Amino acid sequence: MFKGTPEIIAQRREEIVGACEKLYQTMSFKDITLKEIGNVTSFSRPTIYNYFHTKEEIFLALFKSEYDRWNADLEKILNSDENYTSEQLADLIAVSLTKRAQLLKLLSMNNYDMEENSREELLASFKTAYGRSLRLFKEIIEKNYPEMEESEIEHTIYIFFPFMFGIYPYAEVTDKQKEAMKEAKVEYKYQTVYELTYNCLIRLLKD
Predict the structure, then answer these.
(1) Domain that holds residue 190
(2) With CB atoms 3.0 to 4.6 Å apart as the test, which of 50, 72, 117, 133 could cross-link to 2 if both were Cys?
(3) From residue 16, how far is each of 38, 134, 167 by CA, in Å?
C-alpha cells in the first residue's frame, strides 16, 4: 500500500473507484481494464497498483460502496417512527433497490472470481458492508413483525438475499435477448426491478 496520508489514500482510492463506476455505465466488466481505468483518473496506471492490485479489487470496492448506499436507505426505513404494513414495507424496499441498479448488476456477476482475486483485508471490508445489509434487513423485519419467530425471519432473509442475485438479469433484458426469446418462442413477462422485488417480498412477508 502507498505510504501517503490517510486523506490522500482515501481520495485516490475514491477517484479510482469513481473512474471504474463511470466506465461500468457503458462497458462490461470484461472490457474494463486497469489501463482503461487509468485513462479516466488524474494519475497513471502504475500509480493504481499502490491502492489496488487487481481490477477485481476495484470492483469489490465499488460493490462495497453500493452496499453502503443501500444501507443508508435501509437505515432510514429502520429508524422511521412508522410501523409498516406488508404492502408499505415491500414498497419501500422495492423503491430502495430500484435506485440501486448498479448493486443488482454487480450481484449478477461472477462474484467468486471477484472475491478470489482480492486481498483478504479488502474482502473483509466488503463483507462488513454486506453483513450490515443483512443485519439492517433483519432489524426491519423484527421491528415491523414482532410476532415473527427467529426461524421465520431467517427463512425470509435467506430467500430474499439469494433472490437479489437474479433481479438484474430478469429486469434489464437487452433487445438482443428479447429477440432471441421471440425466436425461441419463449413466453415471458418482462417485469421491472420494482415489480420483481415487491412481488417477492409480499409473498414472503404475508406468508
Answers:
(1) 68-206
(2) 50
(3) 8, 27, 27
